[in-house]
Amino acid sequence: MKQSDNYTEKELAKLQRKIKKIFTRTEKEVVKKALDYLSAFKKEDDDMRYKFQNKLITDKEYYSWRQAKMASGKRYNKLLNQINRELIKAGLTAYELINGNIPQIYAANYNSIAEYLNSIVSGYTFNIVNKDVFEQMIDRKEIMLPPPKKVNIPKLEKWNAKRINGEVLQGILQGESIPKIAGRLVNVTNSNLYLSNRNARTMVTAAQNSGRSAGISRVVSQGAI
Questions:
Q1: For the segment 166-183, what is each residue's pLDDT rounded down to a tens digit?
Q2: Per 3-state DSSP, what percentage of the chain is helix, strand, and coil (rounded to 5)?
Q3: DSSP state, residue 150
Q4: What is the pTM of this model?
Q5: 53 by DSSP, 3-state: which?
Q6: Measured between alpha carbons, how far is residue 203 from residues 37, 117, 217 in Å?
Q7: Are 206 and 147 in contact (CB under 8 A)?
Q8: For residue 36, which of 9, 133, 154, 178 sits 20 to 30 Å off, Cα-Cα?
Q9: Do residues 63 and 175 make contact, with C-beta atoms less than 8 angstroms apart?
Q10: How far apart are CA 77 and CA 174, in angstroms?
């Protein structure tokens, strides 16, 4: 049992490292897109900052200008949509990766407990489960895994947009530099990474428990216990 626990945790750690790589690539793309967009306003922002620092305009005028100029209009909405597409794509890729690992997690835990019971219980037939057998058992409805959660893309897009707007607005109102405002979007990609890692742990744990339960049920169904 401990061996299967160690295996499952190692597989989860490997899976999370792969998910991290997906979001690291996405993070670079997201920050680049934001930096390209915001850099277009750098000269104007430098001019307005000069006026603000030399008390030619009030702080309210400066920050209101920044917000209206950098975080509004069609170009800004286009940026939001571009960043959201990058984040959604990364999330879906991570989800496919998670789903691809479920068969081996299930099989490893089924085989582990079944092999253990086979060593201590007489009259029990133990058959190894592999990925192909797993797929057949899924088709025959013999495996009771929780159904995969469907990604609610409109809901996730709305959630991302709110966080993106929040980060950009905070950077603008705090008078941060263009690169620092763009860099704030790392917080948004990290939030998406956290969601994917949470999904990974939930689904791996479900596969682990389901595999063990199926191994025990197989023994009980044969009357060995």
A1: 999 999 999 999 999 999
A2: 80, 0, 20
A3: P
A4: 0.84
A5: helix
A6: 38, 25, 21
A7: no
A8: 154
A9: yes
A10: 22
